[in-house]
Design goal:
about 110 residues, mainly alpha
């Protein structure tokens, strides 16, 4: 999705939302961060249940519909660097590998 399509998706979600605004805010943040980091990094940041909840709020079936697989900033994600290029991605997403799920990102290189 391009930026305008993502803004339209967010506008629709805001217009149709009822419930806890913290959850709406988090769902929007997930998509906006995912634009830069990609859906694979997002899946390493959140539990599958949380992602399902946020996708429901945004009225999307899968993150793959709206986000790149690997974003331009994915290399800064500690979790992504642990699983990139291995067969362990889905094991880490399911929680079968401990210590991988992380929201940490390193400073940009100058």
């Amino acid at each position: 999705m391009n930026d305008q399509e993502i803004l339209s998706l967010i506008d629709r979600a805001v217009d149709n939302f009822h419930g806890n605004l913290d959850e709406l805010e988090s769902a929007i943040g997930m998509v906006l961060m995912g634009r830069h980091y990609g859906w694979r990094v997002v899946m390493l940041m959140h539990s599958p249940g949380t992602i399902r909840k946020y996708c429901k709020i945004l009225d999307i079936k899968h993150l793959r519909e709206v986000l790149p697989e690997v974003g331009v900033l994915a290399h800064r994600s500690n979790a992504w660097r642990l699983v990139e290029g291995t067969e362990n991605f889905w094991k880490a997403v399911r929680g079968q590998i401990s210590g991988v799920r992380s929201t940490r990102a390193d400073k940009p290189e100058r």
